[in-house]
Amino acid sequence: MTWKEAAKAYRSYDFVALVAGSHEQHSTHLPLLTDSLLGEHFAKRLVTEAEGEDINILLLPTLWLGYSGEHANYPETITLRPNTLENVLIDIASSLKHHGVKRFLLINSHGGNIPVLQLAVDRIEREVGLQTHLLNFTSLGSFPKKVELKERPEPAKMNHAGALETALLLKARKDLVQMKLAVPPKLEPLAITRGWWGARYWEDFTSTGASDDPRLAEPERATLFYDKAVSNSIYALKKDLVQEKNRRARGSKKTK
Question: Strand, helix or coil at 133?
Fold first, then answer.
């Protein structure tokens, strides 16, 4: 868009969206920009399908740098510090607010970004005064599971460069997946109560940088994941817009 086109779009779209990705190791067979590529693929689908539900989303260029301290020792991983990422997001939001954007939509595509983005969203709402929504793409496609209280809980399960993420990139950018280089990792047990599951760095518990065997990637699983993630996102955004409309209507009645 030219600046004249963007000026009109910023003010007219329901959401202006930004994908927050990363540039980090993804085992021996996936590219460094995997998270950013997956988030962008998801976001483009979301934009298209949301339009059919009368929700207009303007997609900004992807923020390909994130907080990846847990992968910092792998070659070519580039990470921002948490406060740097937080401030970048706040600065972006401030610019959008200045240009008349109604709602900022953050689409997260990297697990390490989550705590930083959650804090950034809180600060944007309070300090910038811009309504901000957060979609964690990497969890939206997971189907609900039956929760049972167990006497001995299992450590949290990780998903990084393994079967699911490999399947997702095969769906999004098959040309960038080198399955011939995929190997199963040797894994160390994960902790239950420690941050990052008891590992300061990922090489502490995986020999390849993957959380499970990428050779088990199933294309059908990726299709279901994307379908569910897009559907869940549209439902959530639509519900938020309806609730916002109802609140305004109630406020208008009180004023009268």
Answer: strand
Q: Which CATH number belongs to the domain containing residue 33 in this structure?
A: 3.40.50.10310
Domain encompassing residue 210: 3-138+158-255
Overall pTM > 0.85: yes
Mean pLDDT by 10 residues, the chain (256 residues): 95 97 98 98 98 97 96 95 98 98 97 95 98 92 55 63 97 98 93 74 93 95 94 94 90 70
- Residue 152 is assigned to a structural domain of this protein: no
What pLDDT sits at residue 143? 53
Are the C-beta atoms of residues 59 and 14 closer than 8 Å to each other? no
Residues 6+ apart with CB under 8 A from 211: 157, 158, 159, 160, 161, 162, 185, 187
In a domain, 37, yes or no: yes
* Number of domain units in the chain: 1
Name the β-bridge partners of 106.
18, 134
